[in-house]
Structures are given as C-alpha cells and as structure tokens.
Amino acid sequence: MGELTDLWVGTQNWIFETFVGPVIFWLGQMAWYEPAYSAVEFFMLGVVQIAVIALGMRFFERRWPLEKTGNDRLIGVDRVYTVLNKLGILPLAIFVITYPISQEIELLMRSWGLAPPRLERLLPWLGDNVLASFLVYFVLYDFAAYWLHRAQHAIPWWWALHSLHHSQRRMTVWSDDRNHVLDDFLITLALVLFSQMVGVQPGEYVSILMVGRLVESWSHANVDMSFGKIGERLLVGPRFHRLHHALANPDERHIHDHNFAPVFPIWDILFGTAIYDGKNRPTGVDDPVIDADNGRGWVVQQVTVFGRFLKAITPRFLRAPFQPGLRPPAE
Amino acid sequence: MKRLAIAATTLLAVIGSARADSVLVLNSEEASYSILSRAGRTELQRLPVGREPHHLIPTPDGKEVLIGSTATNELLSLDSKTGERRRVVSNIIDPYQLGFSGDGKWFVTVAYRLDHVDIFHADGFKLAGRIFIDGLPSHMAFDAESKTVFVSLQQSGRLAAFDLATQTLKWNVPVGNTPAGVLMLPDNKRVLVALTGEDGVVVVDPSDGKVTGRLQTGKGAHNFWPKGDGRHWFLSNRVEGTVSMVDTQDMRVAGTIKVAGGPDCMDITADGKELWVTQRFLRRVAVVDLEQMKVVASIPVGKSPHGVFMLKSGPAAPASPLSPAGGPLRAVSTGSGTTR
Lengths: 331, 340
Prior knowledge:
- Chain A contains 14 helices and no strands.
- Chain A is mostly helical.
- Chain A starts with a helix and ends in an 18-residue tail after the last helix.
- Chain B has one domain (21-339): Methylamine Dehydrogenase, Chain H (7 Propeller), CATH 2.130.10.10.
- In chain B, the strands form seven sheets. In chain B, strands 4-5-6-7-29 form a five-stranded antiparallel beta sheet, with no helix packed on it.
- In chain B, β4 (53-58) and β5 (64-69) form a beta hairpin.
- Classes of the chains: A mainly alpha (331), B mainly beta (340).
C-alpha cells in the first residue's frame, strides 16, 4: 500500500514540478500553488477512472449486455462528456467560478465566528477510524446528493437542464457525465457548500468524489447484472438506476421519479421512492423536444439545452401557450 | 505465548523510548497529526486534530505546543514532551499563523483567508485588538523589544508593521512578489522577507520598511528556521526544491540542500545534527544530515504535511533572537479566547 501511495504521489509530484508548478511561478500566481497541485491529482484520478470504465466496465457491457441492439452512434457524445469531465477540463472551469463563491460564503460564516463543525466533535471515536469516518461523510454527502437530484426533477428550470442527462436512449457506462455545464455547476456548488458545512476534509472530498463517480458510472452500465437481493439495497447498481432513466409509458407516467439515489439506495427506501420490480425498460424521455438531444454533438446539446433553460425561467405570461420540454416528469 | 509477551514488551519499550524523542507533524489536508520516531525514522501514531491544521508553536514556558486549527477557529494544545492532548482554546478565528512576542506578553495570530491580524494578551488569550488588512496576511516576526510585529501580505506583495501596545499600523510597504517567511535578525536592524513569487529574500529596514538589500537563494523562497548559532538560518525554496543555508552576517548562501516535494516548514534537533523538513507534495518529512548536508531519510506521513515540531526539544525561547517569533509562525484569530 505504501509503495502504491509513493508511486501515485511521486507521479503527481513529477507532473506538477515538471509542467504545472513552473507555469504558476512564471505567471506570478503562487497563491494558486497548492490548489494547482490538487488539480493534478484530480486529473490523474480522471485518467484512472477512464481506464476503469474503458477497460473494466466496458468488458462487462460487451460480455453481458442488457440491451443487445440499439444505435451505438448515440454513445459517442457521452464519451466526449466523460473525457471533458474526468480529465478536469469542465471541472476546472466550474472550480474557477464556484471556488470564490464557496470561499466567500465560508469566510463570511467564519468571520461571524461560525466555524463549520466536525462530526468527530460529537463522535470522538470517528476520529480514530479512517474508514468509518470516510463512510459516514460519504453517506452524508450522498444524502445531500439524493435531495439535490430530486430538486433537479421537481423544479421546471432545473429539469430543463437535467433532462439532457435523461434524454439518452442508449444508456451506457459513459452516460454518467452527460450533463449541461450549468447543471454541473449548480450541483458542484451545492455539494461543496454542503461538504464545508458538515466538515468534509479536502482529502476526504476527493476520495468521496472518486468512489462515488465510479459507482455512478457503473450504475449507468448496459449490463444484465445485479448485486443480488440484499446487495441491490445496499448499493445502487445498473438495474436499480436504469429504472430511473426509464422511458415513461401510459401506465408509468412518473417512472423517472423513482430510484434517485446516487450511491446508497437507502434514501429511496426511506423516502418512498424506491422500486425493485426487476423489469427491464427502454431509456429516454417521452418528449420530442428533449428526445431531439439524441444525435446532436456536445456543442449543439449545450446550446439547445441552455435555450430550454432560458424558456423555463421566462415568466409564464411571456411564453407561448404550449412549451414542450419544460414539464418535469412528475407533474 | 511467552515469546509473544516478550515481543510485545519489546515493541512497547521501543515505542516508549521513541516517544521520548519524537517529532510532531501536522497533516493539513487530513485533519490529523503524526508522531514520528526520530531514531526509528518511522510514524508511530496518527491522531485526529481539528480541521486544516497548518502551523504550531510552543508556549513561552515550553510546556505546551499550540496547533492552529484554522477551520474550526481553535487552538489545540498538546503536551510538548509527550504529544498528549491538554486543552482547546476556542474563539481564535482562523489561526493560520501563530506567534508569541519575545517577552511572552503578546500572542499574535494572522487570519490568512480572513485578512486580519489579531493581537492577544498572551496571558489568557484575551483579544487586545484586531486589525483588518487586505492581501492575505501570512507570516510574522517580532522585534527584539517586543514592541512591533511584522506581517507579510502574500497577495498584495507587501510587508506591514504593527505596534503591539496600541494595535495600530506603523507602516505597510511593497517588498516583492508573494512575500512569505519573515525573520528579524539578532541585530534588530534587519528584517528578512522570503519572496515565494521570486527567487530569494529582501532585506528590510524595520524602522520604515525600506528595502535595503537582496539575496538570491532559489525559486519559491518561503520560510526560515534558525540553525542555532545566531548567524545561519535555513530557508526553504518551495519551487526550486531546495533548502538554503543563509549566512546572515555576510549575507550569502553558505550551502544548499536538495529537498524534493515542495519543502516548507522545518525544525532542528536539539543536538543540531538534523534538520527535519516537511515535503508538502510528497506526503513525507525529510531528514537532513547537517554534517553531510543531504537528505538521509524521508518518512511517509499524512496528506500535505505542514508544521513540524521536535517534541521534548526543551523550553521554547520565543524571546530568543535565534528564533523567528519564537518558532513557526502563522495563524489568525478573533475574539477573546476561552479555554476548555
């Protein structure tokens, strides 16, 4: 384990000292020296995640596919999303915007003497157990992500953005990162603020992000596999999450509004949104405006979805009488 | 069974003796501190501490070490000999860098991210005054009379001087790109400021802040630590990946040691034979043999190790001109402190 850590940190240090650090120094931006070092680790984690998806998860998709037929050309754009996200290109842009905002909020709180708590204060034993500490903060983080996900479906303007993620008719391990940048920004900002509030450490945040995103990539996989009756209730898997992406039908108009949990299904079980019926359903959104996302490239998707968002925030009296694509699934 | 008992006893004895001569390191991105065995060159324990702990300083009586837990607005006190926890001082806002004046009367913290300098009566940590100042206040040093504290402002590239008794600004002058470590020399006539955005230090006149000299050391010059002879100080160069030994009498670099991984804070062993340097990026602490002037060991610790302190290194001497502000400096603070 120690050798693995050394290899990892050594690589990070080499990349930083060879390429990134000198640029930061040359630009005279030494205040960003430490954050830039963390950004290198984020990039490296992205490379690992892409490798796990491309070499590991894709193997299972090829070997045991759930949907054996479909238009594979629709997957291409999702790969672009994955690369842009996992390698930190979009997250970097989002970080540049969210960092000052989250900093200002945190600093304002701290200047009032309101220090973010650490759970270890309430549960001292947590501090002596790294794994338990990680799991507790992970569960808290996932709890916040569950409710944010519900908000993405319930608020019309947010659904206008989030519907891009659901519009994919050919869902695969590459689909998790298929999001509008504004949607990503809002979720990132909310989760960063939440993490600061409950006292997640920077190191823990990276680990949570890494493990969580891998689980989420897997939950989008086109595989006919299950964690078993108990396992499916402990960890979100492909069967559980596929229902959340299911295409609405006359008998199940609100099928999207179930199985929201990103990692731990316990939230859906507790709050009455879990369905375990074992049925396989086609994915996508039953709305021609949203469905039209399929077949578009990254740039066109970003522009058209932003247009949907603008329409959604336009006051009702200024809108046309019928606005397809603006209905959240759970009307 | 008997063999097992002997082995366990031996192990405990080794740990016990190592603790008596051990080193404390703050893992700033893990909210923990490590206790290392100096002789065994290994990590003995890793314990939780606050949140975002960066720097530490011994109390004037040498009995405690104060750790600034920046994000929980607290000082955490450990026994300076054993490393055991003793108390928590609350309501010290954003204590990034910490320092005691030489006479032990004043305790100063700088709030790196909240842009203020807090001056406390050291006895009881009662806030005497808070001065808001733009530019990311980071490091500090005191003059020999304990009348003035000098604070570097990283973002604005300036050095500010504050009167301790009146808690007012005396002067605030530009010194260079990203000033960090500040050192008042024993002659009380020169202040050295390390420029992390450049490749060396500037000499500043403490009376008016005028820059009177410059010395090239290495890219990312950052922080000082005394060798103990009143003449030489070590200076970490974070970008260059070196530690320079600066002869402050002749104002020249007397030696350079290669230390990889963004070297930052330092401490020297009581016998003066080893310099321990935190390697922020490598998650390690380097041990430098000062006779050979090279790294002889590098010990794994937690993420982003920052402050380092030799336990049982004897009473701290904050008033000593050999030590900048009595030791490692950096922190911030707020209202009057309460102890629990």
